[in-house]
Specification:
Monomer. By secondary structure, the chain is mainly alpha-helical. It is about 50% helix and about 10% strand.
Length: about 90
């Protein structure tokens, strides 16, 4: 059974997550405010960030950096800046 939430990222009603994907208060916010569509956009950015910056999920500092980028992207309206990456619409 899918649930509909108001996605603060997309600014519209959208399909919500099936369960909390991230721990703690940030995870609760994501569950309540971020749709599946918005989350998949973040996962795409996260993969690019991990690859470009060679981040390790075993490294607490790398995890903290990713978490900050995630909060900025999902809740602060800040796009993730990837060195050497130009979005197709800007080429």
């Amino acid at each position: 059974m899918s649930r509909t939430i108001f996605c603060t990222f997309l600014q519209k009603e959208a399909e919500g997550q099936d369960f909390q994907l991230y721990p703690g208060d940030i995870g609760k916010r994501i569950y309540n405010e971020i749709s599946k569509e918005a989350w998949s956009q973040w996962l795409h950015k996260q993969t690019m960030l991990i690859n470009e910056k060679k981040l390790s999920m075993m490294n607490p500092a790398d995890r903290k950096l990713l978490e900050q980028e995630m909060v900025n992207f999902l809740f602060e309206g800040k796009d993730v800046h990837i060195e050497g990456y130009t979005p197709p619409e800007q080429q």
